[in-house]
Design brief:
Layout (H helix, E strand, L loop, with lengths): L1 H12 L3 E10 L5 E9 L5 E7 L14 H21 L12 E7 L2 E7 L15 H18 L20 H6 L3 H15 L5 E3 L8 E3 L6 E3 L6 E3 L2 H11 L2 H6 L1 H18 L6 H26 L8 H16 L5
Helix pairs in contact: 3-6, 3-8, 5-9, 5-10, 6-9, 8-9, 9-10
Length: about 325
């Protein structure tokens, strides 16, 4: 297989020689690996290979090895392949994604040959960020959501994100909070039935962004869970991956104000006739629901997770109270 992959890389890129291979990471639960391939005789120094193959034995770090989990992951790789093949070219530099150089299916294995973001001007990955870098991520998300606003996610997840309720029945069963469990389907319905839908990245955590050297521009990777949804799912998830508990609360208004200011200009630049003010009103009102939706997943999946903190608990209680006052919950 290695010889076949090498020939594929040289054929796609036109490079003369493979100089070296660098392991970047193993894929979740043993489903393959991501490599940086250094080349001679190609316009860039390297490309990225995402090599997907089924493990002989699935190893999940938290023990969620079920048929549902396996089917979800298998479909996620089909989605990502389709995304790169059919949809990714619609992204411009304002929401840069790796250029798909070639896709090859060999038996039950898939090889994605992708642009190396390190060579494309996004060499940095961050474990902590300052406000300018948070703005860079929000800028990317706003332009990404504007690009796909109102489009149907054909070949992708009908509902994007890896934690949405339909794909997480086991985690819902494990959830100990009765109020949150009762609210879960109502929250899910409100998010799915939002009038204004776009494509959500679906796993827009800090680890899936690469930054320019000055930290002012971002690009994103990992599109296994891209699909339809309200943009607040990505924004809430991104903020939660970047910020401490206190900062989540302190910066909430700034995060939303900046995101919507960029979203407005991005929609206007695309000469889209969508009512921008209506989008903002609807989505702002869904931010806390999106936050609570992910909190519900975490509480069932990993109750001791570091992202479970008093800010998330307060938001969850506010959402449940609001649903109760509106008559949605008893």
């Amino acid at each position: 297989m290695q010889n076949t992959i090498d020939k594929l890389i040289l054929h796609i890129t036109g490079a003369r020689e493979i100089l070296s291979r660098e392991m970047i990471q193993e894929l979740w639960s043993g489903y393959g690996k991501i490599l940086r391939i250094r080349l001679k005789g190609y316009s860039q120094k390297s490309v990225i290979i995402k090599h997907i193959h089924l493990p002989e034995e699935e190893l999940h770090p938290r023990g969620w090895n079920t048929d549902i989990s396996r089917e979800r992951k298998l479909f996620s790789y089909q989605v990502e392949t389709h995304w790169y093949d059919q949809w990714s070219s619609q992204c411009d530099d304002a929401c840069h994604v790796p250029v798909s150089l070639g896709i090859k299916k060999i038996g039950d294995e898939v090889i994605l040959v992708l642009e190396d973001l390190k060579e494309a001007g996004y060499p940095l990955q961050k474990t902590s960020v300052s406000w300018p870098e948070i703005k860079a991520g929000l800028y990317w998300l706003a332009h990404f959501h504007a690009t796909y606003l109102g489009k149907k996610p054909q070949g992708l997840w009908d509902t994007g994100t890896y934690w949405h309720l339909e794909t997480r029945p086991d985690e819902l069963t494990a959830l100990k909070d009765p109020d949150l469990k009762a609210a879960a389907p109502i929250i899910d319905e409100k998010l799915r039935n939002a009038k204004y839908q776009t494509f959500v990245h679906g796993d827009a955590k800090l680890a899936n962004f690469c930054f320019s050297t000055d930290g002012e521009k971002a690009a994103a990777v990992d599109f296994q869970y891209i699909g339809g949804g309200c943009g607040m799912k990505d924004v809430a998830y991104f903020a939660g991956s970047c910020l401490t508990e206190d900062s989540c609360e302190e910066l909430e208004d700034e995060i939303l104000d900046y995101y919507f200011s960029v979203l407005k200009s991005a929609i206007e630049s695309k000469k889209n006739d969508i009512d921008i003010q209506a989008v903002e009103i609807e989505w702002r009102n869904l931010y806390h629901l999106a936050w609570t939706d992910f909190f519900r997943f975490l509480q069932g999946w990993s109750p001791g997770h570091w992202k479970i903190h008093s800010y998330s608990e307060r938001i969850s209680l506010q959402v449940i109270k609001s649903l109760r006052e509106s008559g949605k919950l008893p």
